[in-house]
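Need tokens for this chain, all 394 residues.
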Amino acid sequence: MGIDIKKLFKNRVSSFYKEMTKYYTIIFMSVFYSFLILGSIFVYYYVKFIQWIPPFLSSEWIASVITALILLQSTIRTFVREADTIFLLPMETHLSSYFLKTLIYNGILHLLKMTIVIAIMFPLIEYNIILTVQFLLLLVGLVMINVYLVWIEQWIDSLRGRFIHKLNLLISYALIFYFLFKGNWVIALSLLLLTYGFSFYIFPLGARRLNWEYLNKQEEKALTKNYRFINIYIDVGHLKRSFRPRLFLTRLIKNWIPPQPYNSFFYLYVLLFIRLNDYFYLYLRLTLIGTILVWVFPEYGWLTVPIILFMTRYQLLPLKREQNDFVILYPVSNMVKMKSYLKLLYILLIFQLVVVNVPVFFHSISGKTLISVFTELLFIGWFVLIFAKKRYDD
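Here are the structure tokens for all 394 residues:
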């Protein structure tokens, strides 16, 4: 049976959303409450951040850089599959309509995303200036041009070339958004055309072979990102993990943990944590964010630290499911496995608690600070010994 190119895009998108609907139907309420809590926290700190901005620093520049960085993170979903390299490669010359639809689809999604981002930036800019037809047209043009500029990245072979390309776009987008937020439409339009013209000069339109390997990797990254988010709430069995051996940390772990039978699963969980990028980088990011927030707003450390600890421990819970199926056959009791997992969880949270509270102790040590730290320790104890222990077999 031949492949109907006209229906291919519709079928791929429909298949993707059917699968996502199954997951989100299950986790909808959990996601809703999570966004409600995190949204409230974001609004609280966003207001504090706006109040903190010094008078000499232009709020439009801050909004421009943030908006440019977010636009720069845009990716292209093509819904290609690994098998397409074999089955669709001979039909590549007939797939222009398919990929055109994917670009339009991505452009619409990116436009919706940037509209929300700019709405969030309203407190930093004079939004009365930008609520015009000119701004909307320029925003649509910028988003669609960005889709094309992301699309051509598949033909940039070197990492250096991609870095220069991204850096050029970051500077260009920041300038364009700055003049858009200032209401200087002519300058913004000129910069937009100049950015497109420069990229068109370097990567002229013409017959190019698709970089199937690049498109497959980008699609896999996008899918993995979706599954990682879902995996926070429920187990996603086919989720692919990225890892690094981290030999230096591995050697340290081998010297730190005695080679005893009762330590076998503790050693396993520690290796899983330091080698799986999802958990390792997540832990580092949250620790760094918490430390920065406490340093900038030390008077709100009593609120920041528990939130960071809560986010960390909640997202470390799926680590217990990362072990290989064959490991279950090891002659080790379930109690030993659970204690090993809880021990790692406890050590990670205590270490994070110490690191995030360092700025608090640098500013001042008071009775309130000590009470806050003691409360956080109790919270960690409750989470590890009661909550995580109860959910270990789930």
